[in-house]
Design goal:
The protein has 122 residues and is mostly helical. Helices cover 34% and strands 7% of the residues. It contains four helices and three strands. A hairpin with a 5-residue loop joins β1 and β2.
């Protein structure tokens, strides 16, 4: 951010290991709470104008994320899907669009995430 002159991160939100959510892209929280618009992201080539970027703190190449992070991710994805009328089946990972290791082992759990979010949405 400092060397490129950016005001914020490219992701709309960051989910910490402890399950705490913070706004990454300025204005994202306001847009989400009002469900009207989406702030342009800078998190995934080809998806920045149409996808909410949720960064999960940590690198999960060899270990699973902490339960608090997972639980927060499920709740936040359900809320985001509800606010923007997104189906749980439309939850993807960075790796689905770009050649990257991100989101690590979380990518293998996307079917589980979609199911958990769908269950919360009813």
């Amino acid at each position: 951010m400092d060397t490129s002159g950016w005001l914020d991160s490219g992701q709309h939100f960051t989910n910490s290991r402890g399950g705490y959510l913070t706004e990454g892209r300025h204005g994202s929280l306001y847009a989400l709470l009002h469900g009207q618009t989406m702030v342009q992201g800078a998190h995934c080539v080809g998806q920045n104008s149409q996808a909410i970027g949720i960064e999960n703190e940590g690198i999960y190449l060899d270990v699973q994320p902490p339960q608090a992070l997972w639980d927060s991710l499920v709740l936040f994805c359900a809320f985001t899907c509800q606010q923007y009328a997104i189906q749980a089946t439309e939850i993807y990972g960075h790796k689905d669009f770009n050649n990257t290791q991100c989101p690590g082992l979380l990518h293998d759990r996307l079917p589980e995430l979609r199911s958990a979010v769908a269950a919360r949405l009813g």
